[in-house]
Amino acid sequence: MLVLGRKPGEYIMIGDNIKVKVVKSENGDLRLAIDAPREVTITRGEVWEEQQKVAIS
Question: Contact at 8 Å (CB) between 33 and 23?
Fold first, then answer.
């Protein structure tokens, strides 16, 4: 696992076509803005974990 420190406004690129940018909300929380092609599935971690539990059972 790669761990990077990023500040609001900074971003990382995954390959040539996925951009993950750190943004700050009005209440101070940090959020991720993901720009990826439509064919790339993006799933929140807790949803993915639940899907894995269902798939196993």
Answer: yes
Closest listed residue to residue 11, CA positions, set 28, 36, 37: 36
pTM (2 decimals)? 0.80
Q: From the centroid of its chain, how far is CA 24?
A: 14
Report pLDDT digits (tens) over 3-51: 999 999 999 999 999 999 999 888 888 899 999 999 999 999 999 999 9
Q: Which residues of the chain form beta strands (DSSP E)?
A: 11-14, 18-24, 30-35
Rg (the chain; Cα; Å):
14
Cβ(57)–Cβ(43) below 8 Å: no
